[in-house]
Structure formats: structure tokens, C-alpha cells
Amino acid sequence: MLKESANSLPPEFATHRVLPALVSALERGGASTSAASIVPLLLQLGKNVSTDEEYVAAVVGPVVSLFSSPDRGVRMALLDNLDEFKDKMDKKMVVDKVWPHLVCVTSSAYPGSCSKPNSKLGLRTPSW
Question: DSSP assignment, residue 59?
């Protein structure tokens, strides 16, 4: 329901009330089954932010911090939507806050968890 009405929300309300609430829901856990729908909604509402600096502070910063979440559903939802915010991340942010957590995902024993980060980032796994 929120997804359908997201575009009709006042930008200030979406940026200062709804975005933080969505990030909080993902940070606190328990939203892993909903992460696949919450993350795209969060990014959709983030498009209302007026400047690049404000976008980084309101959307990219909190989203990047979610890569450290122990919740696999949240991390996979972030990877699925990486194309939406990857251009707003600087190299230091990727190296310090994203990459270490992607290494953890790719070294996982769960099948398929390695191919997603590699394909999203254009990496190739060695064929041994």
C-alpha cells in the first residue's frame, strides 16, 4: 500500500519521517522477509531528496551501513538494488563499508550468494 502512495507523499515528510522509519525497520531486524520490498521503496522515496549531498546523508549512508547487517535477506535486497545507488558512493565508502561485508557474503556456504555480488560489481570468480 505504501509503495502505491509513495509518490503522493509530501517530499519533506517522505525524507524526514518515512525514510528514517524504513531504515530503522531494516536495522532492527525482523524485516528480512520484507527487505526485498522495503529497500526499493526506501530508494524510491530517496529520489525526492533535492541535492546529492542530502541524498548521500539521507539514503546512501544509512543504506551502506545496512551492508553490515547480519540479516542475509537485507544484504541480498541491497545487492539486488545496488544499481540504484552505486553511483552515489565514493571509493572510500565502498572499500571501507561495503567491500568487507561483501567478502563475508561471498565466502558464505549458501549457494548463489557468491554470484550475486560478483555479477553486480562486475567481478569474476576464478574457475579452478
Answer: I
Cβ atoms of residues 77 and 38 within 8 Å? yes
pLDDT tier for residue 124 given thresholds of 50, 70 and 90: very low
Q: What is the CA radius of gyration of the chain?
A: 15
Written as one letter, the residue type at 12 is E
What is the spatial distance between Cα 98 and Cα 88, in angstroms, rounded to a whole number? 13
Contact 6, 46 (CB under 8 A): no
pTM: 0.72
Contact (CB, 8 A) for 71 and 27: no
C-alpha cell at position 22: 524504513
CATH of 2-121, one of 1.10.287.3510, 3.30.70.980, 1.25.10.10, 3.40.50.1100: 1.25.10.10
